[in-house]
């Protein structure tokens, strides 16, 4: 397959990208949201000063849209009750940062000035505790009699909430054409067809009345997989005013009201025989949902519980979890969406078991990994792992890391007083199910066009989809144009999420190109147009192994990630450059979660990390030396033979870093650490030895 540089790059790095922030149709009005900075309060609004401003066109509140609520969430899990989420707060806020009104003005500055002039008075309400909205339970009883010399290890761990932190904050434009009775909606979404259908559902419009366009999108990571309440309010306002309205979020608004990720609390135990064989896994998760429900709200809980026990053979399980509403910003799928939580719990338990059995952590993993000869493998939670050689991934990582030598060097450095830890993590990654669409057009003038229902947010679809089609058609990939992200020219599709773009979207392109070539070879006259809706026969599962080494300063607690070695199997690789970029991008976000990122709320539900002054994200200088080895195994789960790659770094890297940090501090009075592993967190652990010795 042709390996190309990203065709998108020339445009993007020379400032020729076209994001929603760059688009401003003639006659555009500008919107800004009034937000309440307190959770769970009753409020009253005084708009007198705002209404007196000549540039203010209209102010919308919940009273203008009393019957409108957010569309239903994905029914992957059954909810215990109906949970209707409102578009604007109506007299009472659910979370700090919730929008309570929309101001529309003739210019952006006036809209924001009007928002600042609104007076809001509030009074605090009692916090209502609600039962879980979603619950999951997988149980397979053990047929083995417990032995007196069995060892049980257990952990408790809480993950901090994190921000997706896309380079491009949210932005939307809604333009209503009153003569044509059509709505054009520009937004940075991962799923244009879903966005169109949701707008139709909420506003009572037909599909042919709504066009959704996602131009260049500066990152998404799950946070742009669903439309937000602000999007629907904006569309409603544009129809009401029979015009065009633009809203651009500020970075502060992203911290306040954009969906967040992670935040789960987890505990588990693993029963291990003295010989090192895993016998029983127990796990419990509690996932926060926040105050409203994005479309994919049930996904993290579902993924975390179905993925366990990961790449290991364990017949007896008791795995469950729940997800509940809270007075915070909503949580949604964030790069990995439950997969990191599964890997973290399992890999910490394996390391604890290694310590208790006095078996090397690598050897204990090797002993219990599902062998390649057992594939496809039915897990105790009912999933089917399509293919994989997990032992090869572990052994390749060991060889590349020079694991045995690293352990000997670690002992020497420890003897000199250094705090050095080595961490290992094996992981598996489900890569999407269902269907995706593609259209291949062979023009009479020699041009070839590919259109996909899977839009992009930086992954390089224009490069990779062209390479797939070119390989089939035996032409130069640079002569192919790729269209996506516009419901007017791209076929319906699910979108780019859940590590499914290449496995399912790429397979749709492959199938469409193959059919087009067959018709061309049969002598059919041009133009030839082939539309395909491809459904994957099963789910592909990526996997890999991460090894890392960390040193911790005894005086300050500052940790240095000395190196990371990572083996990954993402199946058929269309573009090695794009695949490596996706792996490293996921690694950076996994590193950020583990070492520095944390959204914090105070006891009243107010956000205390509302800017980049308070919330740290990785910089180039934070990235350690990294060696990535791609195994590129085969799979029959889809036509292309591809597996997911974009989320892997967020899955394996945090678990490996946590294991390395715990290994570095193994002689101190702590068994568990929680993210982020800041210098303060590690310094406090270091004080336990000093205090206990006084």
Describe this structure in words.
The chain is α+β, with helices and mostly antiparallel strands. It folds into three domains: 13-127 and 170-248, Alpha-Beta Complex (Aldehyde Oxidoreductase, domain 3), CATH 3.90.1170.50; 260-370 and 383-431 and 539-693, Aldehyde oxidase/xanthine dehydrogenase, molybdopterin binding domain (Aldehyde Oxidoreductase, domain 4, 2-Layer Sandwich), CATH 3.30.365; 434-535, Aldehyde Oxidoreductase, domain 4. It is 29% helix and 25% strand. The protein is built from 16 helices and 26 strands. The strands form seven sheets. A seven-stranded mixed sheet has the order 3-4-1-12-9-10-11, sandwiched between helices. β24 and β25 (559-569) form a beta hairpin. α7 packs parallel to α8 (339-357) and α14 (576-595) crosses α15. The longest helix has 21 residues, at 501-521. It is globular, with a radius of gyration of 26 Å.
Task: State the main characteristics.
694 residues, alpha+beta, Aldehyde Oxidoreductase, domain 3, Aldehyde Oxidoreductase, domain 4, 3 domains, seven-stranded mixed beta sheet, five-stranded mixed beta sheet, 16 helices, 26 strands, 29% helix
Span of the ends, CA to CA: 66 Å
CATH topology name of the largest domain, in short, is: Aldehyde Oxidoreductase, domain 4
Q: CATH superfamily assignment of the largest domain?
A: Aldehyde oxidase/xanthine dehydrogenase, molybdopterin binding domain
CATH class wording of the largest domain = Alpha Beta
Number of helices: 16
pLDDT < 50 runs, ≥5 residues: none
Over all CA atoms, what is the radius of gyration?
26 Å
The overall pLDDT average reads 94
List how many beta strands DSSP finds: 26
Strand order of the largest sheet: 3-4-1-12-9-10-11
Structural class: alpha+beta
Fraction of residues in H or I helices? 25-40%
Which oligomeric form is depicted? single chain
Number of domains: 3
């Amino acid at each position: 397959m042709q390996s190309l540089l990203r065709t998108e790059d020339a445009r993007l790095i020379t400032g020729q990208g076209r994001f929603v922030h760059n688009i401003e149709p003639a006659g555009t009005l500008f919107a800004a949201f009034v937000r309440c900075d307190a959770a769970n309060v009753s409020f009253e609004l005084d708009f007198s000063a705002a209404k007196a401003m000549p540039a203010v066109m209209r102010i919308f509140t919940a009273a203008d849209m009393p019957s409108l609520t957010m569309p239903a969430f994905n029914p992957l899990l059954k909810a215990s009750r109906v949970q209707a989420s409102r578009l604007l707060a109506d007299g009472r806020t659910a979370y700090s940062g919730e929008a309570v009104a929309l101001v529309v003005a003739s210019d952006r500055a006036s809209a924001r000035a009007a928002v600042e002039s609104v007076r809001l008075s509030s009074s605090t309400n009692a916090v209502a505790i609600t039962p879980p909205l979603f619950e999951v339970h997988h149980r397979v009883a053990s047929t083995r009699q417990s032995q007196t010399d069995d060892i049980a290890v257990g952990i408790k761990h809480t993950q901090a909430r994190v921000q997706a932190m896309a380079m491009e904050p949210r932005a939307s434009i809604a333009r209503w054409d009153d003569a044509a009775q059509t709505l054009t909606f520009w937004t940075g979404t991962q799923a244009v067809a879903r966005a169109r259908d949701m707008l139709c559902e909420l506003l009572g419009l037909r599909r042919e009345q709504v066009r959704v366009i996602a131009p260049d999108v500066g990152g998404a990571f799950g946070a742009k997989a669903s439309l937000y309440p602000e999007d629907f309010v904006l569309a409603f306002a544009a129809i009401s005013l029979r015009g065009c309205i633009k809203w651009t979020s500020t970075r502060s608004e992203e911290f306040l009201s954009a969906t967040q990720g992670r935040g789960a609390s987890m505990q588990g135990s693993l029963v291990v025989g003295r010989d090192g064989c895993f016998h029983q896994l127990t796990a419990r998760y509690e996932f926060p949902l926040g105050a409203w429900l994005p479309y994919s709200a049930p996904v993290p809980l579902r993924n975390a519980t179905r993925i366990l026990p990961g790449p290991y053979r364990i017949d007896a399980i008791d795995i469950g979890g729940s997800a509940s509403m809270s007075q915070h910003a909503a949580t949604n799928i964030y790069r990995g969406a439950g997969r990191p939580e599964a890997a973290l719990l399992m890999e910490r338990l394996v390391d604890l078991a290694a310590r208790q059995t006095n078996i090397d952590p690598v050897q204990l993993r090797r002993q219990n990994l599902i062998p390649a000869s057992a594939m496809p493998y039915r897990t105790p939670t009912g999933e089917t792992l399509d293919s994989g050689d997990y032992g090869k991934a572990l052994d390749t990582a060991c060889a590349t890391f020079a694991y045995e030598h690293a352990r000997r060097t670690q002992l020497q450095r420890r003897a000199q007083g250094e705090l050095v830890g080595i961490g290992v993590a094996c992981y598996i990654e489900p890569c999407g199910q269902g269907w995706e669409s593609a259209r291949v057009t062979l023009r009479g003038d020699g041009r070839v066009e590919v259109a996909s229902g899977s839009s992009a947010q930086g992954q390089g679809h224009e490069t990779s989809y062209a390479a797939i089609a070119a390989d089939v058609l035996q032409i130069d990939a640079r002569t192919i144009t790729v269209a996506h992200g516009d419901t007017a020219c791209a076929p319906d599709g699910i979108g780019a999420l859940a590590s499914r773009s290449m496995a399912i979207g790429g397979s749709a392109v492959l199938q469409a190109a193959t059919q087009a070539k067959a018709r061309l070879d049969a002598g059919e006259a041009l133009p030839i147009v082939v539309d395909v809706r491809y459904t994957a026969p099963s789910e592909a599962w990526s996997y890999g192994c991460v090894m890392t080494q960390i040193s911790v300063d005894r005086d300050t607690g500052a940790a240095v990630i000395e190196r990371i070695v990572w083996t990954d199997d993402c199946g058929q690789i269309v573009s090695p450059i794009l695949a490596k970029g996706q792996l490293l991008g996921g690694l950076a976000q996994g590193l950020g979660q583990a070492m520095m990122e944390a959204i914090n709320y105070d006891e009243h539900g107010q956000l205390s990390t509302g800017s980049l002054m308070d919330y740290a994200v990785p910089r180039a200088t934070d990235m350690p030396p990294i060696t990535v080895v791609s195994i590129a195994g085969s799979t029959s789960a889809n036509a292309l033979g591809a597996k997911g790659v974009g989320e892997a770094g967020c899955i394996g890297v945090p678990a490996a870093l946590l294991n390395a940090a715990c290994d570095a501090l193994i002689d101190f009075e702590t068994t568990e650490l929680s993210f982020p592993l800041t210098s303060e967190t590690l310094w406090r652990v270091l004080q336990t030895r000093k205090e206990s010795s006084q």
